[in-house]
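Note to self: keep these together.
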Amino acid sequence: MNTIDMVGFIGGACTTVSFIPQVVLVIKNKSTKDISLTMYSVFVFGIFLWLTYGIMSNALPVIIPNLITFILAGSILFMKIKNDILTGKKVRG
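Structure:
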């Protein structure tokens, strides 16, 4: 593995791991009331685009962290939408 890929993997690992405490908190508290639907929607879409870019350019340091982040952030987004619907809130940002 070259130095450029190593930097990419380390950077990707740092940004990906940063989502784990949020996912754990949402699962533990079963609450997403303080999470912005607009922010997470745009963020998950952006991660999807980075993942697509990584796949199209065959760049593993982009693909792997963004796939994991997409799953983590996507799960928070899913729980946010589900909680808003269950509590009768309008699903909006």
